[in-house]
Amino acid sequence: MSTATKPNTLGVTAVVLAGGMSRRLGRNKALEPIGGQPLICRVTDRLAQVAGGLVVVVNEAERATLLPLPSGARVTVDKYPGKGSLGGLFTGLSAATQPWAVMVACDMPFLSVALLRHMLSLREGHDAVVPVVEDRPEPLHALYSTRCLPFMERRLQADDLKIARFFDEVRVRYVTEPELRKVDAELLSFFNINTQQDVDRARAMAAQER
To answer: Could you give phi then psi for residue 142, rounded to 5 degrees?
Structure first.
């Protein structure tokens, strides 16, 4: 079996960003039933296959009480509230108990375990592993070493919140779209839910999995 297909939990913490307000959907999308389970459970179930330990980032502690999280999950409140996804990434990576974190948003119902394993196989010699889709990085479906923390925090303190800006300061292994498609042909890993139309589409696709 190749490295890309072996489960790899050594040195990796799973981090789920669940602090968004779901304004476009109008309700907590992490709880939306997709394929017979809450969306966040689909996400955490897949991450459990590639990482040891789970951190969930929320914007307020009360929000976490609504989430059906697995036993042993650790919840952390955003250290930089109002600083967007970069603040969430920093908070989650700060709470990681391993040298690396696999970081995803809570609204990605079709994460590919095979793709995550492939990305894990690319870590050596790098500080981050970041997919690129349609010529844009996907920082909310990526791997980060704790070595990224000071560079993230410097941007946060400068109120420079575009995640990709700190990539120039660390060693990034970009995963190109052709490379991604070899593992996830339709790039469904990057499908995320923002609207009711997205919910309907996700439910229809999940029904085809059975």
So the answer is: -150, 170
pLDDT for res 63: 80
pLDDT at 210: 64
pLDDT value of position 209: 84
CATH number of the domain that residue 68 is part of: 3.90.550.10
Any alpha helices (H) in the chain, and if so which ranges?
39-47, 61-64, 84-95, 113-120, 149-157, 177-181, 196-207
Judged by DSSP in three states, 23 sits in: coil
- For residue 178, being part of any structural domain is answered with yes
Residue 62 structural domain: 9-204
Write the single-letter amino acid at 109. Answer: P
Q: How many CB atoms lie within 10 A of CB 62?
A: 9
Q: Which of 26-35, 60-69, 84-93 is most confident? A: 84-93
Q: How many domains does the chain have?
A: 1
Residue-averaged pLDDT of the chain: 91
For the chain, the residue count is 210
Q: How far apart are CA 33 and CA 123, in angstroms?
A: 33
Q: Tokens 């689909």 sit at which residue? A: 42
- DSSP state for residue 209 in the 8-state scheme: T
Per-residue confidence (pLDDT) for residue 24, from 0 to 100? 67
- Report yes or no: 77 and 83 within 8 Å, Cβ to Cβ: no
At 27 the pLDDT is 83
